[in-house]
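#struct-pred
JK: can someone run the complex with magnesium ion? inputs below
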Amino acid sequence: MNKLSALVTAELRKVVATRSTWLLVALAGVCCAAFVTLEVVLYDVAVVSVYSMAGQGYVVAMIVGILVVAGEYRHRTMTWAFLVTPRRSRVITAKLLACGVVGLAIGVLAAAVTVPLALILLSMEDGPLFAPGVPLALLGTIGGTGLWCVFGASVAALVRNQTAAVAVALVWTLYAEWFLVMLVPAVGRWAPSGAARAATGWTRAELPVPGELLPMWAGAVVFLAYTVVLAALARTTTRRDVT
Amino acid sequence: MISVTALSKSFGSVRAVHDLTFEVAPGTVTGFLGPNGAGKTTTLRMILGLVRPDAGTALIGGTRYTDLESPVTKVGAVLESTAFHPGRTGRLHLETLCLAAGIPDRRVGEVLTEVDLLAAADRRVGGYSLGMRQRLALASALLGDPAVLVLDEPANGLDPEGIHWLRGYLRAHATTGRTVLVSSHTLTELSLMADDVLVVSEGRLVAELPAGPDLEDEYLTAIRSSR
Ligand SMILES: Nc1ncnc2c1ncn2[C@@H]1O[C@H](COP(=O)(O)OP(=O)(O)O)[C@@H](O)[C@H]1O
Ligand SMILES: [Mg+2]
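RT: done, structure tokens with the ligand placed:
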């Protein structure tokens, strides 16, 4: 039986060698820079919320995860993986683990863009530069970004079709779910996006509709649970014929 | 040795393979001949554990592909519609296969030389011709130095020189006591390449013929009488 660590390394080599990965990573940095600027300029928000914009690479991380899995079906390269490793759940496990690593890397990079920019922007305002909750919030953004990548990969393993997976994931997380978070927070805070956002330390103080997200730790636990369930489902969907 | 016993597979109402039984002996090149839609690809994919049979078994040396320890070191497969990521180089494709399968990296250079693809190894596969992809597929199959080769229409896209080379390669491979099963819908190709030819039509085995000058007549007779 080939080692799982070798399968994960092989996946990582493929991700690193793919050009679209790097375009998306750059996009994650741009997203974070844009959101942290908007957060400071448009709203009068808590310092922790400003730093929590380091989590705004999550959409990109999710798409990278989708491409890692759905791309293999799209290009029919999954066949090679299944020939090497006939126990298909292992192939999926390796991909999900690789996505965890990639997602964490995107999270670290996003934080590396966000923190200096936040310091610069906040120093131009009157308020404080820093708050005790910031390190934990950054930990939440990095861990959350890692999970989003696994989340995306799991969605792709279930949907298989790349375009459909990207469309479903984007519409659901950016629109459907975000409406819930914004307008029906009692429900939205339990949805993946709401929980994941809570884990970044962001608060919805500036929103017109009152209501709280889950506490940070609870958000982290709930989003982790969503990801684990989805990943477990993804591992069971590999019985179909590969023709 | 490959043994297929009472293998059947339907896709919805289409009976792709129906109660198919045959054996492929080591030391020979065995052709798998039949018109388009005869069930060749489905059979080969069942042998390789990619398609789940409705009934019957397909064993390689007495073991199902999916139960083989380190399968790519025992069976090499060139499949009809496998493809490559267009953005990755041929070398990266082979290196990641080696990594995943626990095969030493030096095999990459060896198989690239064997299939004469070394010069293009560092180019993106998106720019490869069909023949070059076919060579890369064969290189992938050879990585684990397997004793059994299963090839689905491997001559598709190869130029005459490539086909000549493939024929010689498979011959030499079989002569060292290895097992080769190669499908084609083209009779002349197999009559030059194979020792024995299994003829399938509509998912059933209709004849087992020795390759040779009479193959065409015997093939036509077998196909017609099966209808
Ligand atoms: N995934 C599939 N879904 C539905 N029908 C299929 C599928 N794969 C093969 N078939 C059908 O099964 C039959 C045998 O196909 P195939 O094994 O590809 O034949 P060959 O390789 O000999 O041309 C054909 O009628 C084909 O249309
Ligand atoms: Mg075919």
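RT: quick notes.
Residues 2-239 of chain A form one domain.
Residues B 40-41, 80, 152-153 surround magnesium ion (ligand 2) (CB under 6 Å).
JK: thanks, will look after standup
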